[in-house]
């Protein structure tokens, strides 16, 4: 567009002047100097945003996309998460996997303990799919610690509510795929293992806000879905005949409990009259944001908005887990456009949460569970559409290539024994599968460290390169929940570094006396 060309020309003109860069850097320096006074308040509220599969290349590409959606060049744009003052790296490996999965990583960043791939809410002593290794190896999550401390708690996700990331907040399962008893082997059910949907209702029965997809795992087998009554694959799956949604409705109806399954119902709620909310918008995962029916399905931002309005009523504060869960799905399918639009939407939700809370009493952390073998490069020019071509042809096969490529995945394609010529297809289409080096039905996770963005009370403790399971320990320490409570001096409201500082003061006094 002409506006875009004008913007690019203006950008490049001012960027030719060294004063532009020097003044920008000086402004950044002044902001950094303001951060020397650390925020040592007590975190009344904790918000944890998890971009599933949102590795650093995904963050960078989402930044460019966000800017380009506003008619800008994109590279100089700032995501909401990039405005956070503290950034560190998390090592994502599972106890038995160099390249992690979402279940073992969720156990790390929610329960504070590294675990085996495929398991949720159990320690590494538990063996995947082996029911008899569950008992005695359960580990509690920060959501549970917050609930025990009297805080309100919520889970918001764009996936099934029983999916790997949310389930580690409330379930203890040696198999992440045991969504309902229908997905479990008979022996596991007989041995007393519980499916994840059932654990959602039974383990921590008073979770204040639950929002996402996954209706079918809550309903009796073959019961038709409320939204898609004629689509068999959306029917209920439960073999035990239980209707967990109805059970929840019956249990909470006298406690300002509300169940909703579409956007209209959600947005017509008055949060001041809602203490408990169960909102399940799809039989399985929610739809990609690019394909979302904006009349019937809420965006992640809209869900986060309602969740915070309900949770913040508690004078003791709240813990909220928010998952942008389908960034991962887009990448697995080789559909970078779907993945990046999901990441941009999660960033909008981060912006909304920022407007509704204060850094003085709310610690917000944004991170990913793992990365993907997604990359973009090829010496593209400034302002090149993120979904566009590299500016040159390959000097080996003389064909064009997109900037975005995958190390492996479904986008591997040969035409007459050679690499497909991408200029013959619509590579900017929503579901275009970017070319991959190795053919796989599903693209894989990546093994590199992921970024951890933090702001609010004691956010500076998320620094350096740390193990992923360190994250909930910092969040718990900042809000005086879980195992770290000794430092919370009564009535001071500041957990901070008081014990450390006082011991240093004592040491200095002793040294002075001795000298």
Automatic annotation (TrEMBL):
One of its GO terms (cellular component) is plasma membrane. It is an enzyme of class 3 (hydrolase). Its cofactor is Zn(2+); Mg(2+). It catalyses: a phosphate monoester + H2O = an alcohol + phosphate. Zn(2+) binds at residues 52, 328, 332, 369-370, 445. Mg(2+) binds at residues 52, 163, 165, 323. SUPFAM superfamilies: Alkaline phosphatase-like. It is found in: Cell membrane. Binds 2 Zn(2+) ions. The active site is at residue 102. Homodimer. Belongs to the alkaline phosphatase family. This is Alkaline phosphatase.
